[in-house]
Write a structure and sequence with these properties.
With 222 residues, this protein is α/β, with parallel strands linked by helices. The protein has a single domain, classed as P-loop containing nucleotide triphosphate hydrolases (Rossmann fold), CATH 3.40.50.300. It is built from 7 helices and 10 strands. The strands form 2 sheets. A 6-stranded mixed β-sheet has the order 6-7-8-3-9-10, with helices on both faces. The structure holds adenosine-5'-diphosphate (ADP) and magnesium ion.
Amino acid sequence: MSVILVTDVTKAYTTRAGQVKALDGISLEIAEGEFVAVRGPSGSGKTTLLMAIAGMLRPTSGTVKVGQQELYELNQRDRAAYRAKNIGFVFQMFHLVPYLNISENVLLAPRIAGANDRQAEAARVLDQLGLADRATHKPAELSAGEKQRTAIARALLNRPKVILADEPTGNLDPENADTVVKYLADFQSQGGTVVVATHGPAAEASATRVIQLREGRLDDGG
Ligand code: ADP
Ligand code: MG
């Protein structure tokens, strides 16, 4: 059964230089439990595709379904709530809040959503990611690998169906890159679905499917 269904999605930007089609008629079905690596050169649309699947960027045309829900039929508030419950997002640049400690970073989104009872769960995921002794540290006191593990802990907190990761190893050395990929693979082995945009080989080794983007289109090699 598909957990992600992207149907004929186009995203066009109007710039001074004219129209740019970041996505140009993408259709993609991802089944529960897949680990999909999205490969493609810089500017090929990887980030745009992940943001559209995350419910963070409304396509110009086409539809995106996650679970049984058409994301862009929801209003912005309901879509944010649906995303918080079902989708974890990991960014290349970590996106941690510098003045909050690691535990507070992981708990920030549920706190904004009004859930103040997630401390035990946060401690559990931080422990699972080897960060128990970093819980009260600030992001600046962490290595890049620890920062990205914090971002994965944050993505895992709500036990999402899907984790989307946008070049999550782009700022890591090979050893830390392997560790981050291993945690994503662990999530998949427990039944989760992973979609990773990637430049390098680290994530591709764990992928059950590799797809290639080129100028906003899926390249089937033909
Ligand atoms: P990738 O993640 O593969 O590097 P992106 O999805 O970031 O690619 O970008 C795809 C294309 O869309 C690029 O040509 C980029 O310049 C363009 N693009 C992305 N965001 C915007 C924006 N906000 N305004 C105009 N063009 C954009
Ligand atoms: Mg990108």
